[in-house]
Every structure is written in C-alpha cells, then in structure tokens.
Amino acid sequence: MNGGAPEYIPEHLIRHLGWIAVGIPASHMQNLTMSDVDTVAALGVYRNLSEAQLSALAQAFSEQWAAKEPEDWTDIDLAMLGQIICGFNHSDILRVHPDAYK
Fold this sequence. Notes:
The chain has helices at residues 11-14, 26-29, 37-44, 51-64, 75-81, 90-95. By secondary structure, the protein is mostly helical. It has one domain. The protein is globular. It starts with 10 loop residues before the first helix and ends in a 7-residue tail after the last helix.
C-alpha cells in the first residue's frame, strides 16, 4: 500500500492542492476522491490543468456522482464543476438542460 498515492490523500487536503495540482499525472487524477461538493468545486477552479487531467477529473466525477446525469445538472452543478466541465465529451455537454446555463 502506497500512502502517497492520490487515492490515499484525505479529501479535506485535496481541496487545498492549489497550483501543485498540475503536477498530478492525469492517470492519477481519476483516483482522487470527489465525494464532497467542496472538493469538486476546489478542483474546478484550477485553470492550468491539461486536457488529459480535466478528462480524468470528468471521468472521476461521472463515476463518483453516477446518480446525477448531465440532464439533471443545475446551474449550481455547473458552477461547482468549473473548469472540469471542459473535460466532458461533446455528447455529455449536449445533454445538459439549457436552463442549467442561466
């Protein structure tokens, strides 16, 4: 067991990664725990993540928040996702109800 692997970072610390988040490989991004709204929002503010990192975060969000489909997203969800929304594929974005963009 590797205590330094992303899946072992406590969620309250994930919220404070800041600019070092760009150093986390995309393959590890999808292992981050994103069960809390504040964690997703904290990750969504990072503007200098690569396309691969954003895609990995989008995949992690989709898996960990599987009960909420793009059709169910609200304006609050979109604000929470922030930059992570850029990691979703085109078909997922098209499924977001137009009212969510208000």
